[in-house]
Design a protein that fits this description.
By secondary structure, this protein is α+β, with helices and mostly antiparallel strands. The protein has helices at 5-15, 28-38, 55-61, 66-74, 102-109, 116-119, 126-139, 144-148, 159-171, 191-194, 197-200, 207-222, 227-233, 238-250, 294-301, 361-375, and strands at 2-3, 41-42, 82-86, 90-94, 176-181, 185-189, 224-225, 254-259, 266-269, 281-283, 322-327, 330-340, 345-353, 380-387. The protein has a five-stranded mixed beta sheet. A hairpin with a 6-residue loop joins strand 8 and strand 9 (266-269). The two termini are 38 Å apart. Mean pLDDT is 94; it is low at 150-158.
């Protein structure tokens, strides 16, 4: 079966929740539905605009109340709807994904995943990690800084050691995030004191069962995808993903297809179908699931995108924190944004229009910038340079 590139784009946009009318007032139910559809909100520390995990829901729901997300992620135990863990990267995930990631926690606990310094806390430095865990169990929620400055500090209680021990405990599922404090620092606690009891009581699938379920969720969130796309979503290794793809293909959940212009094999989820057309506009975070796999973004939209945060200022092409602008079925512009909270202004330092951008691009973009400014509590939008294609 051959799928046109235009249909592949429409399937991907529909799978990600675009093309729907924005709710008049987004509720907690709207937020949960968006999270269930895309599978996770990636967390990133950069706060030049707003934290990255808030942005995908804004792109799909408009100006929702950000406290809805905060309450669902870090609120009272019985009312939690998300948990933090390493999925794509550091992520907020719907609770029902917890059992599907326990195999990764178990591997971390055995020292089989994570970077070298982290893995050492599963073996020769296990006693240090156990001491960190014991202090959390005795004293309650703590940050890494609480250990650094704490009264129980000894020769090895240094920032790097404590942080690595905490991260290994987090990877292994022995602690989780209770809340965030100050400049977004994790506050760690025991899972049984943070996560709903019913969740922790859910049975744990085998690794193969969980990986199959994760690939199925990836396929549902992507619509049509290559093997790289499917395994990248939850960062599975090739052998883990390939077995799951083969099983799901045999069962008819994944349907092999060819996508016009793609050299790679592809699959569509059996429930994915292209709408006749997609309408709507959205500013996309650099870590939005629609565009976070840069090769896929280029294949789907003909849009080469690289984040330039770590590029020296004089070598940046488009700006520091650049959001692609989605208009209907195309990525038509790039906007370098900053929230100047002291001045109450949303700054669009530079707008770069793509070749072939429709004539109403700037008008539609202005509407989205004003919507974003209102959502962030900023009174005005200020536009700097507008770069047009040659």
């Amino acid at each position: 079966m051959t799928i046109s590139l235009a249909d592949a784009r429409r399937m991907a946009l529909k799978a990600q929740g675009f093309g729907q009318p924005l709710p008049v007032q987004a509720s907690a139910a709207h937020l949960r539905k968006a999270a269930d559809r895309i599978g996770l909100f990636q967390i990133d520390s950069v706060n030049v605009l707003t934290r990255a995990h808030y942005l995908p829901a804004f792109s799909r729901l408009g100006g929702y109340d950000r406290s809805l997300l905060e309450h669902a992620a870090w609120g009272p135990k019985r009312q939690r709807r998300f948990f933090e863990y390493w999925a794509h990267e550091a992520s907020l995930l719907p609770l029902d994904l917890h059992p599907l990631l326990r195999w990764r926690m178990a591997r971390a606990e055995r020292g089989e995943v994570g970077y070298h310094t982290l893995r050492r806390f599963a073996t020769e430095r296990r006693g240090e990690a156990d001491a960190v865990l014991a202090r959390i169990a005795a004293e309650g929620p703590l940050t890494a800084a609480d250990f650094e400055n704490g009264s129980s500090r000894s020769g090895w209680w240094e920032w790097s050691d404590v942080k690595h021990a905490l991260e290994w405990l987090f990877w292994s599922g022995r602690i989780t995030t209770a809340t965030r404090r100050g400049s977004f620092a994790r506050v760690y606690d025991l899972p049984e004191r943070v996560l709903p009891t019913a969740l922790l009581a859910m049975p744990t699938p085998t690794a193969a069962e969980a990986q199959r379920a994760l690939i199925e969720r990836s396929a549902r969130a992507l619509g049509v995808a290559t093997a790289v796309d499917l395994r990248d979503y939850y960062r599975l290794k090739p052998d883990e993903a390939d077995r799951a793809i083969a099983d799901l293909t045999e069962d008819g959940v994944l349907v092999p297809v060819r996508v016009e212009g793609w050299s790679q094999k592809a699959w569509r989820h059996r429930d994915a179908s292209p709408p006749r057309r997609m309408r709507g506009a959205a500013l996309l975070a650099p870590f939005d699931p629609l565009i976070w796999e840069r090769g896929r973004t280029e294949r789907l939209f003909g849009f080469r995108y690289r984040i330039e945060i770590y590029v020296p200022h004089d070598r940046r092409t488009h700006g520091y924190y650049v959001l692609p602008f989605l208009l209907n079925e195309a990525l038509v512009a790039r906007v370098d944004l900053k929230a100047d909270r002291q001045a109450g202004v949303l700054l669009a330092h530079r707008i770069t229009l793509e070749p072939g951008a429709p004539g109403d691009t700037l008008l539609r973009l202005q509407i989205e910038l004003e919507r974003m400014a209102a959502w962030l509590g900023l009174a005005d939008v200020r536009v700097g340079v507008i770069a047009r294609p040659d």
